[in-house]
Queue: 4 jobs
Job 1
Amino acid sequence: MISIEQAQRAIFEQITPLETEQVPVSHGLNRITPESHVAPWDIPAADNSAMDGFAFCHESQPALKIVGFLPAGDVIDEPVPAGCAIRIMTGAPIPPGCDTVVPIEEVEVEGEFVRLKAPARAGSHVRLRGEDIARGDVVIPAGSVLRPQEIGMLCAMGKTTLAVYRKARVAILATGDELLEPGSPPSPGKLVNSNSYSLAAQVVEAGGEPVVLGIAADTLAATCEMISAGMDADMLVITGGVSVGDRDFVKAAIEQLGGEIQFWKVDMKPGKPLAFASLQGKPVFALPGNPVAAMVSFELFVRPSLLKAMGHRRILRPVVNALLQERAVNKGSRPHLVRGLVSWHGDRYLVSTTGNQSSGRLSSLTLGNGLMKLAPESTLEAGCEVEVVLLDRWFEQGEMEVSQ
Ligand SMILES: Nc1nc2c(c(=O)[nH]1)N[C@H]1C(S)=C(S)[C@@H](COP(=O)(O)OP(=O)(O)OC[C@H]3O[C@@H](n4cnc5c(N)ncnc54)[C@H](O)[C@@H]3O)O[C@H]1N2
Ligand code: MOO
């Protein structure tokens, strides 16, 4: 049985970035740019006023004759004579002959004249041409994630469309005669197919596009048929039917369709029966059916693959050191990915387990936000420091008491 790290390495080595596509800049959020973006011009394009006030030549203060008005959007081409000032609005280009701006609050206007309440510093409140970015600067390097600030910067640089790595389409197949779709009334021996939707949500959260294929009945023929239906996607994620049961047909179906199982079983709990295959050159992840095993193995193997395919360079979740709040024991022979609840206490992270760690118990994930790896046959005492993979960082958001 291979280790988690061996399985990750074997999978990630085979994942190559998808093609790129041209999208409107406004659709670029959270996508990766394959190329560097170089400033085609200086921003700002001209020296301009940072304040609503008066522009003048610094040598002319303190009393100045007001000779014009310059709102943002207009320009003054004629040099402003010494001893004169222009009433200028924020963003308007500094007129020739002027080098300094004083805000409106720092002057007194008397008829046609403006008097400074205190001497102004030369060049004050002037934003210089190119002080944000200069023409020729590499503003957004290749491989960057486009955040809202990069979207704004691309627009400021005159871009309307840009190339980004394509979103990965991930087909999701549930297997099992016991499954009902959400919304069906409970019936004996049946349970709701929750995995298709938790996995689809994980795909969306990673920036991919899920294609939910539905449920394959527990026959080889049905499993083959449903797998074939998913082969238009870039990757296939199957859940259930991958263990040693009499009705576990997933591996056989992949092979019958001409796929190659590259490995089966990873030394981990939950998620041991995971199989990784390639079929028609596409990665196929056959995840276990237990709801927690499916989600945890998605986290470890599918999410980083998806991110790599979409051009990301940082494909792993953040890891923090946290103080364990209670004793944690792994009596088993596999490394145990224990679900934990992490909190931040001013200067340190604390973590406690989410209770019963059965891999069928989805609440072990809903109650938590992290995963800690316990070595086989090991005990961690309360108060020791453990590494925790953060599955989300919502708990670090600030809170504010506001009335409803
Ligand atoms: N004799 C052995 N039995 C089992 C072993 C083993 O090594 N020897 N491994 C166990 C482990 S570990 C796991 S994990 C499960 C995985 O089995 P499968 O991948 O074949 O999954 P299923 O048997 O189809 O389902 C397991 C469990 O999960 C429920 N399930 C399945 N699909 C869904 C879904 N889409 N939504 C919600 N719940 C789902 C299913 O009803 C079962 O309860 O095998 C152990 N057995
Ligand atoms: O690997 Mo299984 O997920 O322990 O239940």
Job 2
Amino acid sequence: MTKTPSAADAGKRAAALAALDDVQSGMRLGLGTGSTADWFVRLLGEACGAGRFRDVVGVPTSLRTGELAERSGLRLTTLDDAGWLDLTVDGADEVDPELNLIKGGGGALLQEKIVACASDRMIVIADASKSVDVLGAFPLPVEIVPFGWETTKALVEAVLADADVSGRETALRLARDTPFITDGGHMILDLRLGRIGAPRRLASELVAIPGVIDTGLFLGVADAAIFGREDGGTERRDAPKA
Ligand SMILES: O=C(CO)[C@H](O)[C@H](O)COP(=O)(O)O
């Protein structure tokens, strides 16, 4: 049974519920990570159980989502077995007017990006507070290799010194006083940038550092965003045509 939403996550549930309208029987779905994506997984499980969709198969973007999806009765496969996906539904930490995103608050950015980019369409679901004019108030997660991480951090800081940003603090993400480790065995640096003036340039300069695997900047990846409000209403925005 679906849990009852608190007032705070009613907007997340509303967005997740609206995203079910994009699902059809037989689809191969990328399943995102985070509290909003959790709502989608639970509601999708209920909808499949009630017979609204048949033969849906999911590819989870994290161990956490995979466990929830199994508990929700969804049929799962791997990305390699699916080959290509029809639709990915995932949350975000920030969404700008062009539907560029910051993701990775939950530490799953790499698998989330791999799955979203192997999908015909990606729909972002979020509560209305995630809609921003300019990306950067939420710390930008950057996934890095543990080997030589302090050197990588120094190289990231050198990129930031010349970047069009309003803050330059970097911190290794911790979980109970030890480095947070992603499902892929990597670490995360969180960059407090305040405002990112040129996200494309920043993303390409950061991924050019050998120890950097990827950043939480999802630029031109999302096709649509659904924002949910606490009163249960939603607003849908499509990405500008390329
Ligand atoms: O990118 C993510 C995980 O890596 C999440 O989608 C993002 O952090 C939003 O999470 P939530 O829905 O809990 O606010």
Job 3
Amino acid sequence: MDHFRYVNRELFCEEVPVRELAEKYGTPLYVYSQATLLHHLSEIQTAFASAKPVVCFSIKTNFNHHISKLMAQHGSGFDVTSGGELYRALAAGGTGDKIVFAGVGKTDEEMKYGLGNNVLLFNVESEQELHALGAVAQSMGKVAPVALRVNPDLPPKTHVKTDTSVKGVKFGLDIETILDVAQGVVGHPGLSIVGLHMHLGSPILSNEPYKAGGEKGLKLIAELRKQGHPIKFLNMGGGFGIHYRKQEALPAKAFADVILPIVKEANCQLVLEPGRFIVGNAGILLGRVIFTKESGGKHYIIQDAAMNDLIRPTLYDSFHRIWPTHPAADLPAPPEDYEAEIPQTFKQNVVGPVCESGDFLAKDRNLPKVQRGDLLAVFSAGAYGMAMSSNYNSRLRAAEVLVTGGKHRLIRRRETYQDLLAPELDCK
Ligand SMILES: Cc1ncc(COP(=O)(O)O)c(C=O)c1O
Ligand SMILES: N[C@@H](CCCC[NH3+])C(=O)O
């Protein structure tokens, strides 16, 4: 469910017309619906309730402090992948017992930071990391709780740049070598191998990979226990897909249907690391049309949201629905099928002002004619949108607004020109 809908040809977020938000806070602007966020978190909590999972919101998808606080207040823990993310998780009220620390390149300092805050699990991705973590833990008089991350070597599931469980990616321990690595640390005084972790890729639109990965995991857990490792946790990661193009994603229950029997058979505590599923459809990006032009036979809409605000189309050729916030009387709300003939539309490229040919939000998209000053909504932008934004071209990062019911509040102010220079001016 999401709470962005057209009423009388005007786009609302919950009970607020988004035009009001653009007028008050300016553009480009990220707008989030609190009801959608909490609905998706609770959909996961409910679907997996019988296993009493530790749900760790993957903070990399959207690290806004106010969103993290909402997550913590509603029972979520955090999946973090850097010292900075751990800092944010703790600042939002997260506690170590519900934090998992992932990442292929944790530094000694980051390991110390995690150990000092008693994180639930370190998801360990290589033999060197395992030994380094053991040494750091010993130097602190601690034992590090470890979930070994396995790369279960499954067929491709998603975009080549975001598939994390095919052979040859940098993530996890190869399924062929993980048991040897585990054997090498039996009895290590600084390590306790208490879990198995996998994160298959993102976004995934089928539950089959979770079944296949989980079944491989079951065999590994049995072998690890034979080696003497007290495996208590099965962390199935994140990756649950969302609706980008149309109603194409599975409900959380479909993932629970395949994961719950595996966790039961493994006799483990389930850990999950969903990100996109919770926040992806809870956010839109608003851009205002600056100019339109024709060039080389193509029609361009140049608006003020660019690749530095939302890099997913540039990076992965990702599809985000885009539609005017005030479509004309005879235009529908965003169409189900942009490839089909839509009356009064023609193929246009939606681009930003950045000096790169790759700066686009949509290519050859059926869209109606727009004018200077019109507002466009880019849908499903709540995950990996603001989080992957940058100051490229010295553009100011967008503001973020959270809507709940008929109320709205700024949760990140727009950057200023002074913000751009500040870290440099700190260096005299
Ligand atoms: C280890 C790990 N866990 C969780 C996630 C979150 O994935 P998603 O946002 O698709 O749920 C990611 C990102 O893909 C990840 O790398
Ligand atoms: N950042 C990606 C997915 C990678 C997830 C991180 N492991 C996206 O925008 O879809």
Job 4
Amino acid sequence: MSVGILGAGAFGTALAISIASGRTTVQLWGRSADDMAEQARQRRNPRYLPDAAYPDTLHPTADLAEALGCEVLLLAVPMQRLRDVLRGLDLPPHLPLVACCKGIELATGLGPVRLISSLKPNPAAILTGPSFAQDIAKGLPTALTLACADPLVGTALQHKLSTANIRVYYISDTLGAELGGALKNVMAIACGAAIGAGLGDSARAALLTRGFAEMQRMAHHMGARAETLAGLSGLGDLALTCTSELSRNFRLGLTLGRGESFDKGVTVEGAATARATLDQAKTHGIDMPITQTVVRLLDGTDLHKAMDDLLSRPLKEE
Ligand SMILES: NC(=O)C1=CN([C@@H]2O[C@H](COP(=O)(O)OP(=O)(O)OC[C@H]3O[C@@H](n4cnc5c(N)ncnc54)[C@H](O)[C@@H]3O)[C@@H](O)[C@H]2O)C=CC1
Ligand SMILES: O=C(CO)COP(=O)(O)O
């Protein structure tokens, strides 16, 4: 078995290490020939996961053909870059494509599986759920969801991508899986902002829970299954990301709450996703006040003003 991974950032590298630890051949592709040569020399990724050594069967490469020659292709690039990456690929027709990104494309409102399916005829899946790259790379236990509309392809991928420290569950609901993974990042920004501003753990719990209600509302409207949102890819990842400073989305929220600035070079999927989701919510008439508040914070609205507006909306049933 061989697995190709496009994107040698934190997540692509962590997955490569875990999969290759089981002696599967992994071709980890990155766009910078210099970086990939350095990874091959050091047998680790000095920029993203400097402490994790590469197993023998992990091959860092800048040659796309090596990754495209594998039996499965994982796409571990940021969501807003996925279209460009896919456009540049001349793919074998039956090669399964597994999105490993979490977000909604700003220009179209599409999640990763819908985007792949709009551009390529290949079988499309998503691997998502609560997992920090640092944890996976250390060999710590994690559980993820593999969603694929075709159960034969999906269960085959489930078995191929399960490793000693990644337990993969299969579901067919790709829409629910991509919405859960995308929207939890928006809620993590909101929770980080509340903690950063000193509003306390009770406020965070309220935002997490009412944020989950927003996620369910959007998912229900789009036709996703409620059970998917309550699983690893929704509630599971929401719980992780809203409560840990390892999350970049949560950390962006912290800086918004503290009135500090955030490094623009860091991948934070929730910012573009909040805007894309708010556009969709307006189009479809879905009430998403926390998502709206996150967009206002990103646009520079004072946190206390934004929170006052959130709390002073008309009272309603839970
Ligand atoms: N880091 C984590 O713990 C986890 C990340 N994810 C998801 O994985 C996705 C990728 O995130 P990370 O790896 O963490 O980000 P990262 O910032 O660590 O790495 C992103 C990688 O994508 C590459 N890239 C960007 N644009 C590209 C392009 N046009 N062509 C080729 N390569 C390009 C960058 O060079 C970099 O190597 C995101 O959607 C994120 O939500 C999912 C689970 C865990
Ligand atoms: O998706 C993640 C954990 O499941 C990683 O979260 P961040 O992108 O916020 O770091």
